[in-house]
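re: the backbone from monday

yeah here it is again, tokenized this time
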């Protein structure tokens, strides 16, 4: 009679080969089975002729599976390895496929921990990649799908809705600089109603299309001076300016608010000549207010600018006449400029050595002119020259696409300010050149003292005790912080001509 159990049985089944335990002519216990197609080979436990229990299945391409088997199928906990040794799955299997909770390491260094269904990421999980991105949320069909949070290697973080691997629906995207977008997404981009605030607090709230604002900020404009014509004022008169933020088709970008715009004043820069070097020596090397190119095609340097109310507060102990009604202006500015942090230092200096003498007419060689140093006589030990660029900026805020600068004032520059000194020297040179030209034309033996001033430069100081800018041409420059999600908007310039009190009418409030 033949035994029911057999050890180390070797049987061939249509090209297959089995070596192991059997019972009742069936594979039972531990055994090794080689399949007919030579691609598969199994080592492990058997029951009633089927793989059952713990076993290891080898593949012809070098991959393998080790783990649970139930009635011939891969089932339960197991480890699946591929030819690429970095690609490994550890977790639950069902009917031969990755299903349930598991951890998958991919060849590119990515790692997924979470739910699987039929070999695909599906359910809730965490996906990280080798560059530092991390997603925590829902998956469907191997894609991010549903609600999830994505942390990017750049430091950005997205929390919201996903559809087939793309941000879609409502979500929030934050940036490492503090910027934040909250609103609708489509095809991974801002699309629909949303709000974007930058790191400085500026906000664009409105419609977005393909990642950009529907009303894209394009340029600044002076609302009351669209052609940037000259504004003519008398010394000490304030100027009020309305600024608008426009699209390319000149529509006001009303969606923008809390956006800072700064104002600065400038006047024409005179490069020193060789003769000037002999006049002011080594202080030329100390010039720190660097010129920039203006919209009129020549270099300009900084000039002080402040609000009328702050100027009055700073000079409260002096006898200053600004405009026609100081009390009313102070009261109005206290209301309109509440919270302003702009500070202007007192311009007056009691030392007469720091002041340029009035120019009443010049004859002879300008190179012989002597300019005194500040009190003490030592240029290196003094505060000469004073830096305009070190003064705080005058600023305002754009709300709903518009900003107001109320009662801007051009005070006198700090005593001994080097670019102003150079301008004065150049003006004296103009006097001499003009006198020579007139003399030659009229064939007179005596040089004329007629004055010819540069039409685009302030005139030389003629009243040093005045706290205001002398007559001449100045430029106001309005610079915008970068608008949310916009290319840089170029600064806008406004020409302000300060006329002579005796010949020019007061135009206070011209731009109001």
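seq for it, each position gets an aa:
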């Amino acid at each position: 009679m033949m035994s029911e159990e057999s050890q180390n049985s070797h049987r061939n089944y249509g090209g297959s080969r089995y070596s192991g335990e059997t019972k009742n002519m069936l594979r039972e216990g531990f055994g090794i089975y080689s399949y007919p197609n030579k691609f598969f080979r199994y080592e492990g436990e058997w029951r009633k002729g089927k793989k059952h229990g713990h076993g290891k299945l080898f593949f012809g391409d070098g991959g393998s599976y080790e783990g649970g088997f139930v009635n011939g199928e891969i089932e339960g906990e197991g480890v699946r390895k591929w030819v690429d040794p970095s690609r490994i799955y550890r977790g639950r299997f069902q009917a031969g496929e990755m299903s349930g909770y598991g951890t998958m390491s991919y060849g590119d260094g990515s790692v997924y921990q979470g739910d699987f269904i039929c070999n695909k990421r599906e359910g809730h999980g965490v996906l990280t990649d080798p560059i530092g991105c991390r997603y925590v949320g829902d998956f469907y069909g191997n894609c991010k799908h549903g609600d999830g949070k994505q942390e990017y290697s750049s430091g950005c973080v997205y929390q919201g809705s996903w559809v087939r691997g793309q941000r879609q629906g409502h979500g929030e995207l934050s940036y490492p600089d503090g910027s934040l977008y909250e609103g609708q997404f489509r095809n991974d981009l801002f699309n629909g109603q949303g709000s974007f605030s930058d790191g400085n607090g500026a906000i664009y709230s409105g419609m977005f299309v393909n990642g950009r604002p529907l009303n894209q900020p394009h340029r600044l404009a002076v609302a009351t001076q669209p052609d940037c014509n000259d504004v003519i004022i008398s010394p000490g008169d304030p100027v009020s300016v309305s600024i608008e933020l426009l699209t390319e088709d000149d529509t006001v970008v009303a969606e923008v608010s809390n956006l800072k715009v700064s104002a600065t004043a400038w006047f024409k820069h005179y490069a020193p000549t060789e003769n000037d070097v002999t006049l002011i020596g080594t202080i030329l090397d100390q010039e720190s207010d660097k010129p920039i190119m203006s919209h009129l095609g020549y270099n300009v340097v900084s000039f002080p600018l402040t609000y009328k109310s702050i100027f009055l507060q700073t000079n409260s102990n002096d006898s200053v006449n600004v405009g026609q009604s100081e009390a009313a202006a102070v009261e109005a500015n206290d209301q309109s400029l509440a919270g302003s942090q702009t500070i202007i230092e007192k311009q007056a200096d009691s030392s007469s050595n720091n002041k340029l003498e009035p120019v009443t007419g010049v004859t002879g060689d300008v190179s012989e002119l002597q300019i005194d140093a500040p009190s003490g006589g030592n240029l290196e030990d003094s505060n000469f020259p004073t830096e305009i660029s070190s003064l705080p900026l005058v600023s305002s805020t754009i709300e709903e696409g518009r900003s107001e600068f109320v009662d801007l004032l051009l005070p006198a520059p700090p005593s001994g300010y080097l670019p102003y000194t150079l301008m004065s020297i150049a003006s004296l040179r103009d006097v001499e050149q003009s006198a020579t030209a007139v003399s030659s034309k009229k064939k007179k033996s005596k040089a004329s003292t007629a004055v010819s001033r540069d039409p685009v430069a302030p005139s030389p100081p003629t009243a040093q005790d005045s706290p205001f800018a002398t007559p001449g041409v100045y430029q106001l420059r309005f610079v915008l912080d970068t608008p949310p999600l916009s290319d840089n908007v170029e600064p806008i310039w406004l020409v302000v001509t300060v006329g002579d009190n005796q010949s020019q009418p007061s135009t206070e409030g011209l731009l109001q």
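DSSP finds four helices and 30 strands in the chain. Residues 31 and 486 are 70 Å apart (CA to CA).
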